[in-house]
Design goal:
alpha+beta; D-amino Acid Aminotransferase, Chain A, domain 1; D-amino Acid Aminotransferase, Chain A, domain 2; 2 domains; six-stranded antiparallel sheet; 31% strand
Amino acid sequence: MKAIIYNNSQTFLPQDWEKLSLNRGLFFGESPFTTMKLSDGVYIALEFHLRRLSRSIYFLWNTDFKEFEEKILKGLKELYESSGEYYFRITFVKTLNEEVDFFIYKLPYEDKEGVIHLEKSDVIRGKTNIPNYLKVGNYLEYSLELREKKCSELVYFNYEGTLLECGTNNIFLVKDNQVLTPALIPGILDGVTRHLLLDFLRTNNIPVKERVLTIEDLNESDEVWLTNGLKGIRAAATFENRKLSNKLIMKIEKEFDLFVREYGEA
C-alpha cells in the first residue's frame, strides 16, 4: 500500500490532492502537526497527540479543537488497520483566507534507521518563545547539517551550553546508574514518548531526574537514549566516535513497549 491522504472525509493519493496549496504553513511556517504510529491495531498514545494538536491550534490561531476532533477520529477510523505498522501525521493548516483545516497522511511504517551515531550540532540555539508542545514543519537547518556531517542524529545545545534535544528526538542519558533527561525549558519539545518514558521509569522505581544537563554530562554518560512518537525508544551506539552501552535499555525496552501499548488501549 502506498501513501494516502485523508481530507474533508475523502481519501486521496498524494499526486491527486492539491487542495491546500497556499496556506500559512507555506508562507509563515505555521503548520502544527503531530506524528504517531498505528501498531497492530493500536494508535499509540492517541490521547496525548490530540491534546498537542488542541493546544497548538489554540495557541497559533485561537481556534477551538472541538469542531475538528470528531472529524479526526472519523478519519483515523476510516484509515484503521488491525495489523501491521503505519506512520500517521496529522497536520493543521490555515489558508490565506483564514480557513483552518487539517489532513492526515498515512504511510506503511518501515524502520530503516539502523545503528545510531550522534554528533554535536554546530548550531547554537537561542532563546525561543515557541511553547514546548508546539511542533511545526521546519527542518531545513537540521537537514542541511545532517547531510554535511553524515551521522544519524544531531545533538543540540543552547547559548548557555545547556543540553536541549536532538533534531527529531528527545534525549535521555544514563549516568552513575541514574536516568537523566533535560528539564523542560524553551527549546525542548515536550515529546509524547518522553512523557510516557518518564511515567514508566517512575512507576517501576527506576531512578530518573529532569534537570539541567551539559556537554560534560553527555560525555560522561554510559548510555544515550533517543525517543520520539514514531520510533519509540532506542539506544545510540556512539557519540562523536565514543562507544556507548545499551545495558539498561535492553532490560526495559520490552516492558516499556508493553506499557505504551496498554496506555494506547486504555
